[in-house]
Write a structure and sequence with these properties.
Layout: H1 7-43, E1 53-59, E2 64-68, E3 79-82, E4 89-98, E5 102-108, E6 119-124, E7 139-145, E8 148-155, E9 166-170, H2 184-189, E10 193-197, H3 220-232, E11 238-243, H4 245-256, E12 263-269, H5 275-285, H6 290-300, H7 306-309, H8 317-320, E13 333-338, H9 347-355, E14 360-365, H10 373-376, H11 378-399
Parallel strand pairs: 9-10, 9-11, 11-12, 12-13, 13-14
Antiparallel strand pairs: 1-2, 1-6, 2-5, 3-4, 3-6, 4-5, 7-8, 8-10
Helix pairs in contact: 1-6, 3-4, 5-6
């Protein structure tokens, strides 16, 4: 026989059910907020440089600076440092002294050492900040893109002629054109006319309507416009070169451009070849749970997620995976990548080289970290490019 439920028992059960329901709703809301934040962090440009270094002291007379030791600040070679409050970009020379916690480096041609104060700073692979520092002739030009005129620097070939090949240089995520100036001398010495370009949402070129990165899925159109500019100015052959996300951009350009017939080859420095592998790596480094990571990637690629990410169009991460589409590759590619990159893992670069040994040449480094290969080993980096270009140009001459 069923016993009637007393009113007191019902009252006790109803609050418990309400609490459980509210807790579930709160948990779902928090999860959604975290996922949205992760997804937005991937696609929203950040206007400030990461403060990933710390200045401990500077010695004006000795022209030295002491930093907290990190994997980057301990690197051999030449680098740059942005210090808040200082008007200059400070060039760093070799390591002079190191301990377990500090590193002292030379300051190169720096007259503003006295303005450097202890505190946070941004360590950079940039070495040249302005094209005039290269000592080469150059001109400021504008590339007509679908969003408006985008600024570029044009360096004439050492021996200008109708036969001189061109190189279009594309910087990575969160930086601007000076990042790629390191490559101009080696390309110029090989006889190339160089075009250093900007692209949407990089703080120099016109912004897109949504103000979001497309991770290469939209930016390639601006590089395609640079290809059109090169073609209009008589470029017979063009090499595309990209750093980090710029690598993803030039890979899309080489695949999708209507001007791909003049693309002679592709050079990639620390490139994003597959975004999923990069996002998984960075999520693990940031201790983001796999469920949050995978849901954020789904959000980026979903039409339903556009209201949360702010993307005008979802990003097709499958299409950006060049390993999965290795069969579509039809240009020679040189990849330069450090196996301890620390930001963009080299796994996809290795996978692409293994999938297309007929077209892809992979030169690996160690210790050099992300986009700092030139800084760490400039001769080896430059020699790898020079030798690859020599083979590329020999092939082009044989074909004519």
């Amino acid at each position: 026989m069923n016993r009637p439920c007393h009113a007191g028992q019902r009252q006790r059960r109803l609050p418990v059910a309400g609490i459980l329901g509210a807790s579930a709703a709160l948990a779902a809301g928090l999860f959604g907020a975290v996922v949205t934040a992760v997804a937005r962090r991937v696609v929203i440009p950040v206007p400030t440089r990461p403060l990933d270094a710390r200045v401990l002291s500077a010695a004006p007379r000795q022209r030295t600076i002491t930093l907290a030791a990190t994997p980057d600040t301990l690197l051999p070679g030449r680098y740059g440092l942005w210090v808040p409050g200082s008007e200059r970009y400070h060039r760093l020379g070799p390591v002079l002294e190191r301990t377990t916690q500090t590193v002292t480096r030379e300051l190169i041609e720096d007259d503003e050492v006295s303005r450097i104060v202890p505190g946070p700073a941004s360590f950079s692979g940039w070495y040249f900040r302005h094209p005039a520092e290269l000592g080469l002739e150059f001109a400021d030009v504008m590339i007509e893109t679908e969003l408006g005129d985008a600024p570029a620097w044009r360096f004439p070939a050492p021996e200008p002629s109708a036969d001189a090949p061109w190189a279009i240089l594309v910087h990575g995520r969160g930086v601007q054109r000076p990042e790629v100036l390191r490559a101009v001398p080696v390309l110029h010495a090989a006889g190339y006319e160089c075009l250093v370009v900007s692209y949407r949402n990089d703080g120099e070129a016109p912004a897109s309507a949504d103000g979001r990165y497309g991770l290469g899925a939209t930016e390639w159109r601006d590089v395609d416009a640079a290809l059109a500019y090169a073609a209009e100015h008589g470029a017979p052959r063009v090499v595309l070169m990209g750093w980090s996300m710029g690598g993803a951009i030039v890979l899309q350009t080489a695949q999708r451009s209507i001007h791909d017939s003049i693309v002679d080859g592709v050079i990639l420095d620390s490139p994003v070849v597959d975004w999923r592998s990069v996002l998984r790596f960075q999520a693990k480094a940031s201790r983001i749970p796999p469920l949050v990571r995978d849901t954020a990637m789904w959000l980026i690629g979903s039409r339903a997620g556009r209201l949360l990410t702010g993307l005008r169009h979802p990003i097709d991460l499958d299409r950006l995976d060049r390993v999965a589409h290795a069969g579509e590759l039809h240009h020679p590619v040189l990849i330069l990548h450090s196996d301890d990159d620390g930001f963009v893992p080299s796994d996809a670069s290795h996978a692409l080289a293994e999938a297309r040994p007929d077209l892809v040449t992979l030169v690996t480094f160690s210790v050099a970290r992300h986009t700092k290969l030139w800084n760490f080993a400039p001769e080896r980096w430059s020699d790898a490019i020079s030798e690859w270009l020599a083979r590329l140009n020999e092939t082009a001459r044989s074909a004519t």
